[in-house]
Design brief:
Helix content: over 70%
Radius of gyration: 42 Å
Number of strands: 0
Largest sheet: none
Amino acid sequence: MFGIGGTVLLVILVVALIVLGPKSVPQIARTLGKAMGEFRKVSTEFQRTLNTEIELEEHEKRKQEAEKELFGTEQKATAATKPAEAASPAAKPAAAATAAAPTETDASVKG
């Protein structure tokens, strides 16, 4: 219970019986029992509320990490495709211009 052994509890009960008298001990014990029950109820409710808040906070943290990972991946993928797209149109006209322009080797072969 409170780290009180059986012998110590028995001594406390005997002293209470002597000091308070046999008539009031059951009433005091009943009142003390109700108070202990109420304390346990409040304590359990507090612990349950605390655990719920901790779980909610952890859930929000995991949600933010998942969103960060998801949107970070999308941004990386978007950033990776933009340079490739930017390089592709620039590379295509340069390649077309190179293919269309006659080179020295072409002129010497024809001539």
